Amino acid sequence: MTKYIFKRILMLIPVIIGVSLLIFIMLDLAPGTVLDIIANDYSPEQLEELRHQLGYDRSVFYRYGKYMWDLVHGDLGISYIYKTPVWDLYMQRLPSTLKLAGASVLVSILLSIPLGILAARKHGSITDNVSMVAALLGLSMPNFWLGLMLIILFSLNLGWFPSSGDTEGIKSLILPAITIGTGLMATLTRTTRSSMLDVIRSDYLRTARAKGVPEKAVIRKHALKNALIPIITVIGTQMGRTLGGSVVTENVFSWPGIGRLTIEAVKQRDTITVTGCIIMSVIMISIIQLIVDIAYAFVDPRLKSQYSTASKRRKRIGRTPEVRANGT
After folding, report:
1. Which among 285, 288, 275 is positioned nearest to 24, based on CA atoms?
2. Whether residues 123 and 220 fall in one domain
3. Are 36 and 173 part of one and the same domain?
4. Which of 18, 244, 305, 315 has the highest Cβ tally under 10 A?
5. Alpha-carbon Rg of the chain, whole angstroms?
6. Residues 157 and 31 occupy one common structural domain
């Protein structure tokens, strides 16, 4: 397991290099630079000096190489616009994004797993069809449209919740969490239903029923436990996506998260901030996926035994006389 975790961490290196290079090239191809945004604050001489300091009088690969050199030394750079270290900007916005991501995934889990189990138990019935139509509607509604509809209904007309910002605690969180959670719910509902259908008619469940185990216990303790692997995969993917920044929803609700910070930086051609935010998001998503992979071993003992068996096999091979002879 330790070797697997180390291998996954090493795989982050080419991903970070590829993503950061792509960002630099794409923003370089876009019209305008950050100097055009801040030109009014500087004299022509100061602007030319700043152009030289930022490397805009050289190629994009020079600026990229300089950025990566700083990154290797643990420096995400200084934001061109905010004049603040990108690390500090990211950490300031991270709590809001974590709060929104956690609430959104919680809404998704609370709604979709019971609905998916119900649809699987009532397979082919009206309940199943209604559940799948509801999931399809959730998948089809764009986040920006649903967010605007919720704002119009619950903020403007009813006045129950604030329409923007993160200043009123849970009340500020409810509408954006429902907006994101509804889209996530659709995928998780369909996954739960499909996974449950694969196991719900298995022989071991028939045996449990024959022994007199109540149906609720059969579903909860036996069927759901064996159907959890794909469900955990989807939950982990959803958590990674929302931690990466729910760009559309954060902009609709003016939520002070990472997604909104990234969009603001793109508009202002702040390459350093955009690159730093996306690199940190890549790392966060990779950590979430690694945690999901490790969770598989606790949910399914067969996977845990595979890791243990592979480790023991490598140790036995290392002790064979041929290997010791080759190593000397």
Report:
1. 275
2. yes
3. no
4. 244
5. 25
6. no
For 200, the domain range is 92-303
- Tell me the pLDDT tens digit for each residue of 145-203: 888 888 888 888 888 888 777 777 788 888 888 888 887 787 888 888 888 877 777 77
CA distance 276 to 269: 13
Q: Does residue 312 lie in a domain region?
A: no
Residue among 299, 184, 186 at smallest CA distance from 240: 184
| Residue 80 lies inside a defined structural domain of this protein | no
The first and second tokens of residue 297, run together, are 């071993």
Beta bridge partners of 78: 85
| DSSP H or E run through 266 | helix 258-267
**HEC readout, 104-118:** HHHHHHHHHHHHHHH
| Whether residue 191 is found in the same domain as residue 292 | yes
pTM, entire model: 0.72
Note down pLDDT in tens along the chain; length 328 residues: 677 677 777 777 888 888 888 877 887 777 777 777 777 767 777 777 777 777 777 888 888 888 888 888 888 888 878 888 889 888 888 888 888 888 888 888 888 888 888 888 787 788 778 877 877 777 777 777 888 888 888 888 888 888 777 777 788 888 888 888 887 787 888 888 888 877 777 777 777 777 777 767 777 777 777 777 778 778 877 777 777 657 778 888 888 888 888 888 888 888 888 888 888 888 888 778 777 777 766 666 555 555 555 555 555 555 555 444 444 4
CATH of the domain at 103: 1.10.3720.10
In this structure, are 141 and 247 located in the same domain? yes
As for how many domains the chain has, the answer is: 2
Asked if residue 85 is part of any domain, the answer here is: no
Instruction: Judge whether 47 lies within some domain.
Output: yes
123 and 68 assigned to the same domain: no
Say which residue the tokens 């999931």 belong to.
135
Q: Are residues 42 and 167 in the same domain?
A: no
Residues 6+ apart with CB under 8 A from 164: 253, 254, 255
**In 3D, which of 285, 199, 274 has the Cα closest to residue 242?**
285
